[in-house]
Each structure stands twice: as C-alpha cells, then as structure tokens.
Amino acid sequence: KKKEEVYIKEIIEKSMDFLAYLFKMNSIKVNYQNNSNSSVEIYLNEIVQVFINLAKNSCDAMIEKNIENRVINITTYEDEKSLIVEFEDNAGGIKSDVLGKIFDPYFSTKNNKNGTGLGLYMSKTIIEEHSGGKINVYNTDFGTKFIIKLPLK
Fold it and tell me: How many Cα atoms within 13 Å fall on the side-chain side of residue 105?
C-alpha cells in the first residue's frame, strides 16, 4: 500500500457519497463546512472507511433513538500542525459510563446487536497507528462529537 496526497474535501465527499442513499432513506441532513486548503498524506481508502463508520454510527444512533430532525455536521480546519475533522450528530450523545470504552475491541452500544464492536476500534487504529493522528470523542449539547487530527506535512 502507498500513501496518497489528497485534500480533505475529496475524502469527505467520497465518504458521504457512499452513504448518500442511506442518508436520503433515513432523512439525514449532512452539513459540511471546509476551512482547510492543505493536503494530507494518508491511505485514502482507510480514511474513507473511518468517515463512513462514524457517519453510519451516527445514522444508526439517530434511528435507534427516533430523532426527528436528523443532522450530521462535519467541519474541517487546521491548526499549526494538524488538519482537524469534526463529526457531530444530534443523536443525544453516548452514556457517560460507556464513553471511555467505545474504542475498545468488541464493545458495542447497539441494542439490536448488529454491531460487532470493531468499527471504532479499527477507526482508532487507522487514525493513530496508520496515519499518525489522534481521535477523541466528546458528548456535546446535541449529541456526540468525534475529533480527528491528522498531521500536516
């Protein structure tokens, strides 16, 4: 495998295009605000997989909790050393007693047990071990926010 130099906008668009039908069928609005002009050197398909996983998890949570106005906000921006991607949904957040476990292998919050518990574990591995970045999660007033930092060259 070879790393590719790509702009974050291309990665987000490729990921969200993959889920466009799912979003349409489940009335999910995706808002994307790009404030980044730098490219990153990454394994493209791996990062696409991470973004698909995060968006799909948000979708599942909104459906499971019967959220009416379903929204995923994606924002990209930079600081001195990193390109930052924020994924935030309005599904009400993750219970605080399990928030620290969601990156553990085989841990799932999904009631219907359709979750393998490997999606976020693999996402963390891809971001931190394959891409040299960091991924964190927080509950906000609306739902859950994942913050991914990828190193700029």
Answer: 2
